[in-house]
Design brief:
It contains one helix and 20 strands. The chain is mainly beta. A hairpin with a 5-residue loop joins strand 7 and strand 8.
């Protein structure tokens, strides 16, 4: 088997490749008589292939099967398999590789208070970025200003091979935060390298203030 013109071992993991990349695979078989059928499969689906059959001069054939397809996040962790089937054998020969694919973040969600808060209260805002590989980085903004220091983030590897990144911003609400927007930005290497916009979402705080009335007694 060859990937992008380079030989790879059976059962190995290849990559990483960014989603949207065009992937070229070659599977070669020699010494078969009659010429074997060489096919590529992505899971349970056959891939479109171009097949070249060359006689080797002694009644056997050299067969090359080339598959070309565009990688998506749905191929992450999947197996691509070459199958060689010959009338001379009752069992086909299988060789496969596993795909390591880097993907954009799939979603970003910000959660904050759903009711007004009182000035002086502790407020917690949570930002979660799902479906990224490699894991996304999170940055918090108060209006247009980067908040410092940034809160710590937690990264979890999910069952599909992508990462969930979560960050909680805890602050003391003040009257100056009323109607203020707190932004969360999520970005990973796939977005950076493709010069694509990061994921961005805001939440707005409503802050209630206590007012004191002073009376002049005569």
């Amino acid at each position: 088997m060859e990937v992008e013109g380079k030989k790879v071992r059976n059962g190995s993991t290849v990559g990483p490749y960014a989603e949207g990349s065009t992937f070229v695979l070659e599977c070669k078989s020699s010494g078969g008589r009659p010429a074997p059928e060489v096919t590529w499969w992505n899971g349970t689906k056959p891939l479109p292939v171009k097949t070249a059959v060359i006689p080797e001069g002694n009644g056997t054939y050299f067969v090359t099967s080339t598959a070309r397809f565009v990688l998506s996040r749905w191929d992450l962790g999947g197996k691509v398999e070459c199958r060689v089937r010959s009338n001379a054998s009752s069992h086909p020969v299988h060789q496969w590789i596993k795909l390591d694919i880097h993907v954009r973040p799939a979603s970003l969600n910000v959660r904050g208070p759903t009711t007004p808060v009182v000035a002086g209260e502790m407020v917690s805002l949570t930002c979660t970025v799902e479906g990224a590989r490699p894991a996304a980085n999170i940055t918090w903004y108060n209006r247009s200003e980067v908040i410092g220091p940034q809160p710590l983030t937690a990264m979890d590897l999910m069952s599909d091979g992508t990462y969930r990144t979560a960050s909680s911003l805890v602050l003391v609400a003040s009257r100056y935060d009323h109607k203020g927007e707190f932004f969360c930005k999520g970005i990973n290497e796939v977005l950076r390298k493709r010069l694509e916009a990061p994921l961005l979402q805001a939440t707005t705080l409503e802050v209630l203030c206590e007012y004191f009335a002073f009376f002049l007694l005569k």
